[in-house]
Amino acid sequence: MPNATVHLVRHGEVFNPEGVLYGRLPEFHLSDRGVAMAVVVAEHFREMADSGVVFGYLAASPLSRAQETAQPSASALGLNIETDPRLIEAENQFEGLKVSSSELLKPRYWRYFRNPLRPSWGEPYQEQLNRMRLAVEAARVIAVERAGDGAHAILVSHQLPIWVTHLSLQGRRLFHDPRRRECSLASVTSIEFEQQRVRSVRYSEPAAALLPGAASTPGA
Predict the structure, then answer these.
(1) Fewer CB within 10 Å, N- or C-terminus of the chain?
(2) Number of other residues whose CB lies within 10 A of the CB of residue 211
(3) What is the CATH number of the domain that holds 20?
(4) What is one GO cellular-component annotation here (predicted)?
């Protein structure tokens, strides 16, 4: 039995009719489909609780879409939502733009592509990973302190910070093709710990039935 499990949840679909890269911009809320995704994730966790899993901690990024995704789980599990700024979306120089290849080829953006390995257009992958690791470790410790050995924690965050964390835990390089991220809307990446050692990383999509037709514009 793991000493603790931390679940990294990506937020649900965002209402974004203009298809802009919303990044850390405020007031981007869940769509109706996104709310339904959040409810499905909450049911997933409630079923786990009904089977004997004890949840001791729930935190979310300060952005609206993460807070709204966390709300049904908080209600289902009787937990408060704690806001952790370390879970926020990656900073991106292109937020607010409707990103396309023709737009990005404009000369005024060329300076942002000088180092794609870092990447130079936004928050470095390593910095994202560093803050996410701190958030995950804090969640592990707090969950066990509050709910005992074997406790679970839920952290609602965003695709890119979750994915670089997943890559690191698998010993893979952080630079990657964004089209190949295994972190769909309302997905759950579960990290099992034995004390401070990661025993396994599992990925699931409780809201898979709602993914067809969902907006695919990433946050960063």
Answers:
(1) N
(2) 16
(3) 3.40.50.1240
(4) cytoplasm
Q: How many whole angstroms separate alpha carbon 158 and alpha carbon 66? A: 8
Q: What angle do CA 48, 49, 50 make, to 5 degrees?
A: 90
Q: What pLDDT does 165 receive?
A: 98
Secondary structure of residue 38 in the 3-state scheme = helix
Beta strand pairing call for 151-157 and 188-194: unpaired
d(CA 34, CA 38): 6
Among residues 75, 193, 73, the alpha carbon closest in space to that of 142 is found at 193
Q: 217: closest CA among 88, 92, 86?
A: 92
Pairing assessment for the beta strands 151-157 and 4-10 based on DSSP bridges? parallel
Q: Model confidence at 83, in pLDDT bands (50, 70, 90)? A: very high
In-domain check, residue 218:
no
pLDDT 10s digits, 2-12: 799 999 999 99
Domain, as residue range, for 157: 4-210
Strand residues in the chain grouped as ranges (E): 4-10, 55-60, 82-83, 151-157, 188-194, 197-204
- Residue 149 in this model has a pLDDT that exceeds 80: yes
At 121, is the pLDDT very low, low, confident or very high (cuts 50, 70, 90)? Answer: confident
